[in-house]
Design goal:
Order of helices and strands: HHHHHHHHHHHHHHHHHHHHH
Structural class: mainly alpha
Radius of gyration: 31 Å
Distance between the termini: 43 Å
CATH topology of the largest domain: MetI-like fold
Number of helices: 21
Largest sheet: none
Shape: flat
CATH class of the largest domain: Mainly Alpha
Amino acid sequence: MKYLTAFCSALVWGSGQCLNRQRLKGLFFFVFQLIFAGIELCTGSFAVLTGAVAAHPRNAGFFIRGFWGLITLGEIPRESSKTLVYDHSIMLMLAGIIALMAFLLFCVIWFWNVRDAYRTRRDLDAGGRALSSAGYFRALWSSSFEYIVITPGMLLIIFISIVPIVFAILVAFTNYNMNFIPPRRLVEWTGFETFASIVKIRIWGGTFVKIFIWTVCWAFLATFSSYAFGFLQALLIRAKAVKFPKVWRSIFILPWAVPGIVSMMVFRTMLNQEGALNQILLKWGIISSAIPFLSDVFWARLSLVLVNVWLGFPYFMALISGVLITIPQEQYEAAEIDGANAFQRFRVITFPAIIASTSAQILMSVTFNFNNFNMIYFLTGGGPPNPGYQMAGSTDILISWIFKLTLDQRMYNYASALSILIFVVIASVSTWNLLRTRAFKED
C-alpha cells in the first residue's frame, strides 16, 4: 500500500496524502502541480493545438522552450531586418538556465510530496498514528522555522546570484565572441575547445602563463610590502620615544580614508612622463632625463607596488596596532629581566603573536590583490603595451586581461574560461584558509 500511495503522489501531487486522509496537505502539494502545469500552459502558444502554429519547441511553454533553447542555442539566425522569426542564442541560454533552476525547485517539492506520502502510509501500516494536516503544518513550522524564513532569501540568491554565475561558466563552453554575435550569427556549444586553445595555441598559452606568473608575483609583492610597512609604522608609533601617537596614527590613516580611485588618478598624473614627480627631480638635478614610470615595464610594475603600499599600509598598521595592545606587558618585563634585548623581545614575543593573529588577514589580502582590478586599470591601464602578449599589456593581471577581452575585444568565451581558472585558484586559497581557521577546527 505504501508503494501505491507514493506512486499516486508521483502522478498527481497530493493524491497519496488524500489516500492517507490528509486532504489539506494533499491540496497543498496539488496547488504546486497546478502552478507547474499553469506556467507551462500559459506561457506557450495555444495555436499549436489548432495547427495554426507549427508544433515546435520554440512555440511551447516556459520549461520545454527553455530546455530546447539551452540545448540547441537556437536554429534560425536573423539574416536581415525583414526576418520576423529568429533565435537569439544568449537569450535562449539565459531563459534555459532560469527554466532549469525553476524545474529543479519543482522537482524538490515533487520529491517531498512523494516521500511524505510513502512515509506516512508506512507508519500507518505499522500501526502508528499520522498527524492531521493541521498538526503536520504546525510541527513543520515549529521544527523548520529557520529554513522557512530563509527560503525567500535563498530563492533570490538562486535567481540573482547563481543564475549569472552559471551563465558565465557556460559561456566558456561556447564560441561566443566577436565573430558569433547573435542574433546575426548563432552561438554554438564547443565543449572544452576554448580551454584547449588557451593551453595549445602558443600566443594564447604564452600570454596566459606570463600574465599568471605576474599576477601571482603581484599578489604577494603587493600584500607583503604593505604588510611590512604597516608593521613598521605600528611598531614606530607604539615606541616610547614617539610623542602624540594618536596624532601620528590619525595622519597615517588618511591614505586609507581617501577613496582609492582618487589617489590612483592623482598618482597617475604625478607619475606621468611630464608629471610633477619627474619635474621636481629634474629641477633639483637628481635625474638628467625623465623616468618612464608608466611607459617602462620595470618602472611601471615598481610604481604599482609602491602606490599599493601607500594605499594598503594603513589597514595593516591599524590591524597590527590593535594586536600589539593585546600582548601582555608582563611578557616583555619577564624577558627584560632574563636579559633579552629589544630585538630578542621582538623576535620571541611580538612577531609570533602578530603573525598568529593576522595570518588569516594576510591570506585574504593576497586573495584580494590577486583580483585587484582597480589598481591596474586606474594607474597603468595594463600598460605599457607588449607585442608578445595577446590583447594584454605588461602590467595586466588576469582580471584586467579578462576585462579587455570582454569589453574591448568581445571575446566572451575566452574571458569566461579565464574567469573559471581564476575561480579555481581563489577558491583553493580561500578553502585552505578556511580549513586553518580556529572556528572551523572547533566545529
